[in-house]
């Protein structure tokens, strides 16, 4: 699908979620951060809100589960309407089983890595996935500064996918803006979560297009 932009509603107005979703109609995905105040020190929204948003939004939902026990909860988010469900490998006891359950219910399965979690130990799991999410901030809060120390991990992940001939997407989440998206695209990422950069813009849809254009400029070289 080429470059994809997934605005994060973590930076949206929670009192106007349907309107905020419509404000980024040019986006490929709507990124939904689910936090439980246990795996990360923040509490956001859960399955009932995802179910309501899935009915109201015209853009497919990309649910990022920053929660404990994703093995138990992840399949339910597909039933709630998510088209892609991401679990954190650090919190998952049975990542292969969980990925297979997500896919069996009809959604894309993704595995997320915190900034300090390497990709290499999970090389044998890659064929069970549709996407790898590389966090470029510590998960839990929006508006954080991009950690450029994670860029080499993006490159290593792309090399592993190429090595095995796998057609997985690499998603980047954390501090993505017009100033940081190009280096991630150059390293091999193709799906970009942007919260503050999009929702703080005067025209969120125009910012979605600008970010996509900046990443495409790099990948077209």
Tags for this model:
single chain; 221 residues; alpha/beta; 8-stranded parallel sheet; 8 helices; 8 strands
Provide a descriptive summary of the structure in words.
Strand 3 (61-66), helix 3 (70-79) and strand 4 form a beta-alpha-beta unit. Helix 3 (70-79) packs parallel to helix 4, helix 5 packs parallel to helix 6 and helix 6 runs parallel beside helix 8 (204-219). By secondary structure, the chain is α/β, with parallel strands linked by helices. The chain starts with a strand and ends with a helix. It contains eight helices and eight strands. An eight-stranded parallel β-sheet has the order 1-8-7-6-5-4-3-2. It has helices at residues 17-22, 47-56, 70-79, 95-104, 151-164, 181-187, 196-199, 204-219, and strands at 4-7, 30-35, 61-66, 84-88, 108-113, 131-135, 169-173, 191-194. 35% of the residues lie in helices and 19% in strands.
Helix content: 25-40%
Q: How many extended strands?
A: 8
Strand order of the largest sheet: 1-8-7-6-5-4-3-2
**Beta-strand content bin:** 15-25%
Structural class: alpha/beta
Biggest sheet: strands, sense, closure? 8 strands, parallel
- Put simply, the count of helices is 8
Radius of gyration of CA atoms, rounded to a whole number: 16 Å
Overall form: globular
SSE sequence, one letter per element: EHEHEHEHEEHEHEHH
Low-confidence stretches: none
Ends: how far apart? 17 Å
Average pLDDT value? 96
In short:
This protein is α/β, with parallel strands linked by helices and about 220 residues long. The protein contains eight helices and eight strands; from the N terminus they run E-H-E-H-E-H-E-H-E-E-H-E-H-E-H-H. It has helices at about 15-20, 45-55, 70-80, 95-105, 150-165, 180-185, 195-200, 205-220, and strands at about 5, 30-35, 60-65, 85-90, 110-115, 130-135, 170-175, 190-195.
């Amino acid at each position: 699908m080429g470059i994809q932009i997934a605005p994060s509603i973590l930076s949206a107005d929670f009192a106007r979620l349907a309107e905020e979703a419509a404000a980024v109609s040019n986006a490929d995905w709507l990124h939904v951060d689910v936090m439980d105040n246990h795996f990360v020190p923040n509490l956001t929204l859960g399955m009932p809100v995802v179910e309501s948003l899935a009915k109201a939004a015209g853009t497919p939902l990309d649910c990022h589960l920053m929660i404990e026990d994703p093995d138990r909860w992840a399949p339910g988010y597909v039933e709630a309407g998510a088209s892609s469900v991401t679990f954190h490998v650090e919190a998952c006891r049975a990542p292969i089983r969980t990925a297979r359950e997500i896919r069996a219910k009809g959604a894309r399965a993704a595995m997320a890595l915190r900034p300090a979690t390497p990709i290499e130990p999970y090389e044998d799991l890659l064929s069970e996935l549709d996407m790898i999410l590389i966090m470029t901030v510590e998960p839990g809060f929006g508006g954080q500064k991009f950690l450029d120390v994670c860029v080499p991990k993006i490159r290593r992940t792309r090399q592993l996918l190429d090595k095995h001939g796998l057609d997985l997407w690499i998603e980047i989440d954390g501090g993505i803006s017009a100033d940081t998206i190009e280096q991630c695209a150059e390293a091999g990422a193709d799906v970009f979560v942007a919260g503050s950069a999009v929702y703080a813009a005067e025209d969120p849809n125009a910012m979605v297009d600008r970010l996509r254009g900046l990443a495409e400029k790099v990948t077209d070289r």
